[in-house]
Amino acid sequence: MKPIKRIIARAAGAGIATTVTTGIVAAVGTAGTGTAISTLSGAAATKATLAVLGGGTLAAGGFGVAGGAVVLGGTAIAGGIIGPRVLKKIKGE
Hints:
Order of helices and strands: HHH
Largest sheet: none
């Protein structure tokens, strides 16, 4: 695979992985207040999604938004690693 195609595949894989992860959490998760994340918008929805990914709010014993950012970063890295491999499989290389 050419280097530019590999870079594009990595970026696409990372973007898809983070989008799917946050979308699933937003669709089924609940904020620390008990409100469904799907009913929130803007910063409230973003912070609630990250807190859920981080294992819950700091007050509830989780790692909060910072933990969620780490988890989401790991998801992006994994997607970036897997992206080119998926593209190779699809193309039959």
